[in-house]
């Protein structure tokens, strides 16, 4: 049966572009989100976060009626779930949003439907989703216990897109598709083939779950290596960026870039899902998390070391986002640095973040900290700390930094 209609639950940085891209291919798409303000905005053709090229495809799809949004799902041939899967305070997977989405989807399911979990999940979750659906819909059969003949097909196809590059990567990246049965994987492939130019690689649901977690844990471990080297280099008074550049001239070495730490809702989170599945066998993955989580505090010590000999220092911290040219502050090491600096009482802190117009809640109440414009900060600060390599900061004329103390956590101003 060909797929003509689709629901996408979770209209965040993966779900909304996914919905818009399928709508652009002529499917009738209903985007679902529990937040009415987001739903209303999308129905007006608006996008609630910064992502290059997204606005025009959402506007087009809403304009020609192929994309609508609502707070509850409706019947459709296929259903994608792309809700956040964060962790709890003690690093356990928090699947509440996912299971809430599954519960509301259960009401509209019918024989022949396809359900795809795109959210990043611990191994075994897709089977648990199938089991939950069958509990709620005893009138239908599901693949975790009825195999290839089940009424409904369930698969996991993890999103792998890079924030800041989502629209291109959604269509160009290869897609791993894990079915609870081969039939589930085949049907999910039929859906993705409508929009994806990359290869669709079929496997089991559990393998696809581990593949996604491994990709982000791989990156976390590699960034941790770079961050650990940077701490060593600071102690030995060596320019880490020069050392990495030279080491990478070896044909089999490719060290990543050290920075203020690892942020975002993926790389700083997903490795914990592997740890949770195999707590006794994850020394390396755990150590990488520890190294990356400690990096912001190393930077804070460095900044305090630079500022402590200045009377009433004014410290400008450039960037709060978790990486360049996006407005996402989740798990951001830059926020951790600014918070720790402010609470240390070392001096006045000016945070500069061109992508937001208010400080996040955890920084808002802190004394001696303000959200400042770039010009004002460059004018007044004694110490300039570069936390995020936003394009706006790359364009700062070197003479504007003359006479200031510089702490460059991204290696962007080397040689100034
Ligand atoms: N970072 C460094 N040094 C580097 C590279 C990154 O310090 O050399 C830092 C960034 O500044 C940032 C963090 O790591 O704080 C993560 O940034 P990122 O650009 O590496 O990745 P994300 O979190 O934006 O997106 C990742 C991607 N995963 C991989 O590259 C393996 C993306 O493909 C996934 O779809 C996404 O996680 C996700 O949603 O899981």
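Q: What amino acid sequence fits the structure above?
A:
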């Amino acid at each position: 049966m060909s797929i003509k209609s689709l629901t996408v639950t979770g209209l965040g940085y993966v779900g909304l572009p996914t919905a818009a891209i399928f709508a652009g291919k002529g499917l009738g798409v209903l985007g679902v989100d529990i937040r009415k303000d987001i739903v209303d905005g999308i129905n007006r053709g608006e996008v609630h976060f910064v992502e290059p090229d997204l606005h025009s495809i959402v506007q087009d799809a809403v304009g020609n009626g192929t994309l609508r949004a609502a707070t509850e799902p409706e019947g459709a041939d296929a259903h994608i779930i792309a809700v956040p899967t964060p962790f709890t305070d003690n690093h356990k997977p928090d699947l509440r949003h996912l299971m809430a989405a599954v519960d509301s989807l259960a009401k509209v399911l019918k024989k022949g439907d396809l359900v795809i979990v795109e959210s990043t999940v611990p191994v075994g979750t897709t089977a648990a989703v199938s089991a939950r659906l069958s509990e709620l819909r005893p009138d239908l059969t599901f693949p975790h216990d009825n195999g290839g003949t089940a009424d409904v097909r369930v698969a996991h196809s993890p999103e792998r897109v890079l924030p800041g590059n989502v629209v291109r990567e959604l269509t160009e990246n290869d897609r791993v598709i894990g079915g609870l049965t081969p039939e589930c994987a085949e049907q999910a492939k039929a859906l993705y083939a409508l929009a994806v130019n990359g290869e669709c690689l079929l496997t089991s649901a559990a393998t696809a779950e581990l593949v996604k977690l491994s990709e982000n844990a791989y990156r976390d471990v590699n960034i941790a290596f770079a961050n650990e080297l940077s701490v060593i280099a600071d102690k030995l008074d060596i320019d880490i960026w020069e050392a990495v550049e030279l080491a990478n001239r070896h044909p089999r070495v490719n060290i990543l870039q050290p920075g203020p730490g690892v942020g975002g809702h993926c790389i700083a989170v997903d490795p914990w899902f592997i740890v949770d599945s195999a707590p006794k066998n994850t020394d390396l993955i755990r150590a990488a998390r520890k190294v990356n989580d400690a990096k912001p505090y190393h930077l804070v010590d460095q900044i305090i070391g630079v500022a402590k000999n200045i009377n009433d220092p004014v410290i400008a911290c450039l960037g709060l986002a978790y990486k360049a040219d996006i407005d996402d502050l989740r798990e951001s090491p830059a926020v951790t640095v600014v918070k720790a600096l402010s609470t240390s009482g070392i001096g006045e802190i000016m945070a500069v973040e061109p992508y937001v117009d208010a400080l996040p809640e955890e920084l808002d109440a802190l004394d001696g900290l303000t959200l400042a414009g770039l010009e004002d900060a460059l004018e007044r600060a004694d110490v300039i700390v570069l936390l995020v390599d936003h394009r706006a900061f790359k364009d700062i004329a070197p003479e504007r930094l003359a006479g200031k103390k510089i702490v460059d956590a991204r290696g962007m101003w080397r040689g100034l």
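Q: And what stands out in the fold?
A: Residues 5-198 form a domain with the Rossmann fold fold (CATH 3.40.50.720).
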